[in-house]
Design a protein that fits this description.
CATH superfamily of the largest domain: Adenosylhomocysteinase-like
Pathway: Amino-acid biosynthesis; L-homocysteine biosynthesis; L-homocysteine from S-adenosyl-L-homocysteine: step 1/1
Shape: globular
Oligomer: single chain
Function: May play a key role in the regulation of the intracellular concentration of adenosylhomocysteine.
Helix content: 40-55%
Protein name: Adenosylhomocysteinase
Family: Belongs to the adenosylhomocysteinase family.
Number of strands: 15
Number of helices: 17
CATH class of the largest domain: Alpha Beta
Structural class: alpha/beta
CATH architecture of the largest domain: 3-Layer(aba) Sandwich
Distance between the termini: 55 Å
Keywords: Cytoplasm, Hydrolase, NAD, One-carbon metabolism
Amino acid sequence: MSVAFSPPFPNPGCMSTTGYPPVTEQLAEPETTREEGRRKMDWALQHMPILESLREDFLAEKPLEGERVAMAMHVEAKTANLVELLADGGAEVTLTGCNPLSTHDDVSAALDAHEKITSYAVRGVDDEEYYEAIEATIGHDPTITVDDGGDLVFAIHEDYPELIDTIVGGCEETTTGVHRLRSMAEDGALEYPVFAVNDTPMKRLFDNVHGTGESSLATIAMTTNLSFAGKDIVVAGFGYCGKGVAKKASGQNANVIVAEVDSRKALEAHMEGYDVMPMSEAAEVGDVFITTTGNRDVIVEEHFRKMQDGVLLANAGHFDVEIDLVALEELAADHYEARDGVEAYEMPDGRRLNVLAEGRLVNLAAPLALGHPVEVMDQSFGVQAACVRELAENGDGYEPGVHEVPDDLDREIAEIKLEAEGVEFDTLSAEQEEYLSSWQHGT
């Protein structure tokens, strides 16, 4: 079944991948660049004990032998270690970026040098090149997909439905992608099983909260050289990512304001001690605005008209649709690069509204961005690797649709991490397990 979808960029349709070059054929000095990427990967791997532990098993058991894994991810050092782990497990891997500004060319080149990996990811591609790279990745006839945002899965269903019969399943990394896939499944249009990696506790509680919170604020601070202390920080959305941003901003002595559309989340933010108000009111007082919703049109024209001179606008959700940049540009009398990674939009009355990283995912797309902390991504990518292994070994047991990550896989990754950290924890006795599983014990 072919399904229509709405990608973050205009989809140019099914394109031939003939002749589309991997990254090393597009770079001026691929060998030097490759060495720089390898150095980044080696540094990250020192702090990724989960992937190191899994690597031992993957090298010995080759659980992915014969599989062809296609990936659309943020191609940087931490992701690269996941990619190499899958190759070490026996898979042929092809990958491209899931955001035009989150690829590190040196890391992409280092991956492309691996005999079992082909990388088409290049930073700064335009809309057409972005989709050409996705098509080239799909052109290797994958049996498993690993996606961040859903574009790879949607492109397969739209342009390559003939591949679906040979794809055993996929994994989706992020909130936005899971939302899109669930909508697709509800419409009966998702034709192979996909694990919602984003929804598992090891992803939500650590990657979304600590990873997004720390990396977003660190990137904003490095990009602007400004402090958060004493400022009014408006966080749009109080899901796991929003909770992380709010918590970390509060820890840096900011006054946190939360804008929410869900009554229970708004109440939760209120009970956490944050100010809660509609965006229309927050727009008048905020100094820094950070969107974390995964939705579109979170900050729009009516809000721009109320904002103070010098505000910072950053997106920590996913696609560049949370801040209405079209409306902002139409309102502005002028816009210019105020600082590397900061575009100033000057209003007719002289107010300047500053957009970071072109409204894209700030912790990955800004010039100084490094993404989530290494230790956090070690956990998330450990879950990804375990899910790919599960698909290779037991994929036939899953029906088409979105699936929760099996709890034993999630706990496996937590236990590996605790062991690496030297942390011991209790276990239930047989009597305790029996008590919890029985309905016969009364008061």
